């Protein structure tokens, strides 16, 4: 039987491919809304295929009406959280260096820890709290060195994305108590695909320009999140999210060697070391 660590490593690899490929494309073609729509539609179709294999696990009856309402509310919160994450993510990837975004995205560990403590009855040790502080310092350091105003610039999207992602994964973790993983995926992706053209301006004639790349990254992203949910279904939320962040070092190396993103190198190294130390401390 495949171990949880193997599944998690696969999820991390696919997630990195998603980020790398989309960053390369969006850096040259900042068609964020069109990319978002094509990405989410592809994810929805792929999730629908997963549903076929888990259709027998879908509940047909609920014990009471309150459970049904809880399921409905969780699904709505999940969809809007995923929409916020997807929009902020593609905006950030289009305009901010991959290494900077990757380090700031580690703040999702902080939000994950807070979510786990507040809603899932998880606890944090003193060492884990120290790790949270180290990651926060690393994110603030790399953000301020990027010469962008924190509140009124694209840097805001880099900070918002991990908050929305933490909320989305947290809601989805609770949804695993009611629904199979594939159905949760389909709800999140299809809901986002439906809302995107309603809330954001999309130039449909430009979708064909982003379609091929979006399909590739969406395939990686869907598979990555499917495997992540599988692990979350049996493991502690905060610990899994900490380990999942280890791939950010690969993101920084990819940005340095392949995207030639070499500005503020010393600051990136210091931030990377602080974030790595924070992750190791949290995982201890």
Separation, N- and C-terminal Cα atoms: 26 Å
Q: Count structural domains.
A: 1
Give the uncertain stretches in residue-range form.
148-152
Give the CA-based shape: globular
Task: State the share of residues found in helices, binned by percent.
Answer: over 70%
Descriptive account of the structure:
The chain has about 280 residues and is an all-alpha fold. The protein has one domain. It has 12 helices and no strands. The chain has helices at about 5-30, 30-55, 65-95, 100-105, 105-120, 125-145, 155-175, 180-200, 205-230, 235-245, 250-255, 265-284. Helix 1 packs across helix 3 and helix 6 runs antiparallel to helix 12 (about 265-284). The protein starts with a helix and ends with a helix. It holds the Pfam family EamA.
């Amino acid at each position: 039987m495949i171990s949880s660590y193997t599944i998690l490593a696969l999820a991390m690899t696919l997630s990195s491919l998603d980020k790398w490929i989309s960053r390369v494309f969006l850096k040259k073609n900042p068609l964020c809304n069109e990319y978002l729509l094509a990405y989410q539609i592809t994810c929805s179709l792929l999730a629908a295929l997963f549903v076929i294999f888990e259709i027998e696990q879908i509940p047909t009856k609920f014990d009471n009406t309150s459970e049904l309402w809880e399921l409905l509310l969780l699904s709505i919160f999940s969809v809007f959280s995923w929409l916020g994450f997807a929009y902020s993510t593609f905006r950030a990837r289009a305009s901010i260096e991959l290494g900077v975004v990757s380090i700031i995205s580690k703040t999702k560990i902080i939000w994950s820890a807070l979510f786990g403590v507040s809603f899932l009855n998880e606890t944090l040790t003193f060492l884990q709290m120290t790790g949270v502080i180290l990651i926060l310092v690393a994110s603030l350091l790399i953000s301020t060195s990027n010469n962008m105003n924190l509140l009124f610039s694209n840097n805001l999207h880099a900070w918002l994305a991990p908050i929305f992602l933490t909320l989305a994964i947290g809601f989805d973790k609770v949804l695993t108590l009611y629904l199979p993983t594939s159905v949760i995926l389909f709800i999140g992706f299809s809901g986002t695909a439906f809302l995107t053209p309603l809330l954001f301006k999309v130039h449909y004639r430009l979708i064909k320009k982003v379609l091929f790349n979006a399909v590739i990254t969406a395939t990686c992203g869907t598979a990555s999140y499917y495997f992540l949910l599988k692990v979350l279904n049996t493991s502690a939320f905060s610990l899994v999210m900490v380990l999942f962040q280890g791939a950010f070092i690969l993101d920084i190396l990819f940005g340095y060697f392949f995207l030639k993103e070499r500005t503020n190198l010393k600051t990136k190294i210091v931030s990377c070391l602080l974030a790595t130390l924070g992750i190791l401390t949290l995982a201890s």
